[in-house]
Amino acid sequence: MSSEKKRVVITGGGIVSTLGSEWPVILANLKAGKNFTRRMEDWAKYKGMNTQLAAPITDFVPPDFPRKKIRGMGRIALLSLVATENAFKLAGLTDSPEIKEGRCGIAYGSSMASPDPMMDIYSMLILNDMTKMNATTYIKAMPQTCAANIEVFYGLTGRIITTNTACTSSSISIGYAYETIQNGIQDIMVAGGAEELSPVDSAIFDTMFTASTKNDHPELTPVAYDKSRDGLVIGEGAGSLILEEYEHAVKRGAKIYAELIGFGTNTDGNHITQPNRTTQSISIQLALKDAGITPDQIGYINTHGTGTTAGDISESWATYDVFQRPAPVSTLKNYTGHTLGACGVIEAWVTINMMNEGWFHPNINLRDLDPLVAPLDYITGEGRAITTDFVMSNNFAFGGINTSLIFKRAIT
User: Closest Cα partner for 92 from 238, 242, 239?
Assistant: First the structure.
């Protein structure tokens, strides 16, 4: 292993989301300025549950993969597989024998696995009957279902890192994959995360009074940073990035979409669910130090922006504490809802593409800025044309797990 740090670039990316999967479609949906929240009429059956809002993917049809290769996959693993397939195609690696030779690994995570097989497992304890279980039940329910299924499907034989760290599952997977390549352990890494929509996810936040209950006006929520916000909305999706050692990518003639130059992560160490402004700002500072750049060089920040009062206020001030200026910011969650374990990679891939496009999406529905949030430049209206060589994407999770990623404009 070389002591010299390797450069790490992004040579492919793929997402499955309410915004779409191809960049032209995603860009059009971002510019349309409408969210994908809908009222889940069937959720009215859950007694005591106040929210009936979510942002599901309604048109997901997995490709016709061989049944033998996907029989151990629930919806969440299928979402992650399609995202990875798209990423490998973009990177020109789908049929490459190289990914099977030990120099390609995977870092992948989610908050939970598919809920239906977990219910089949629990039914044994509740009903004293295990007839609902079969040979693939656990495979669909295990925490590492996405990572394991992807590596088996493609025959990856490098390192595997599973990152089940709630809302930072995929951003921390990107960071760990970056460090793995930096240190010469792998040449290529698949990094990302996924989340399958379940009413349980919404119910968890409902019990904490942090889920939006604007059930009659789904088009108006979530709305981070607005005085009228009333909580988050759960979404679903998946995303995968192909990280590659720079010289390796150049040698094979790969297109480079961005260079990953900074990663910061730490933990709050004081509360499972309450954000900590101080440690959040330290995570951002760690990424800047790793990147070797100053805060003034960052032209745009994609925020975690969940639409919860505590989260919005803490994150905005943690950001301002570092940047000390009205830096341009926006959150993708106002469009997609909170995709939990998938949000970091989806937001990172969208941010990379926006940097290359020179246009950044607005905070849709933001009309009345909460006076308690920090004085940042909250992009509104039709978005913002910004030319910048450096962008940041931040995510924060239950457990006090903070992440910050910095991408540099694609190398030409």
Answer: 242
Q: Is 385 among the domain residues?
A: yes
d(CA 26, CA 23): 5
17 is a domain residue: yes
- Terminal Cα distance for the chain, rounded: 28
Overall average pLDDT of the 54-63 stretch: 92
pLDDT band at 411 (very low <50, low <70, confident <90, very high): confident
Token pair listed for 136: 């693939």
Q: Residues with Cβ < 8 Å from 372, sequence gap 6 or more?
A: 309, 313
The parent domain of residue 69 ranges over: 8-409
Give the bridge partners for 10, in sequence order: 243, 258
d(CA 320, CA 326): 7
Nearest to 308 by CA among 208, 386, 169: 208
Dump pLDDT digits (tens) for 255-298.
999 999 999 999 999 999 999 999 999 999 999 999 999 999 99
CA 371 – CA 373 distance, rounded (Å): 6
Mean pLDDT of the chain: 96
User: Is 219 among the domain residues?
Assistant: yes
Q: State the CATH number of the domain containing residue 125.
A: 3.40.47.10
In a domain, 1, yes or no: no
- Answer for the pair 394, 284: CB distance below 8 angstroms, yes or no: yes
- Count of the separate structural domains present in the chain: 1
Q: Which residues are catalytically annotated?
A: 167, 304, 338
The answer to whether residues 99 and 188 touch, using CB atoms and an 8 Å cutoff, is yes
Please answer whether residues 229 and 309 qualify as being in contact, where contact means their C-beta atoms are separated by less than 8 angstroms: yes
Lowest mean pLDDT: which of 10-19, 66-75, 178-187, 284-293?
66-75
How far apart are alpha carbons 47 and 33 in whole angstroms? 34
Q: Token pair for residue 394?
A: 């931040």
Residue 58 is inside which H or E element, if any? Answer: none
Phi, psi of 405 (to 5 degrees): -120, 140
pLDDT band of 1, cuts 50, 70, 90:
very low
> Which tens digits make up the pLDDT trace of 353-377?
999 999 999 999 999 999 999 999 9
* Single pTM value for the model: 0.97
d(CA 260, CA 391): 10
Give exposure, 42-57, as e/b (b: 16+ Cβ within 10 Å): ebeebeebbbbbbbbb
Burial class of 269 by CB neighbour count within 10 A (0 to 12, 13 to 18, 19+): exposed
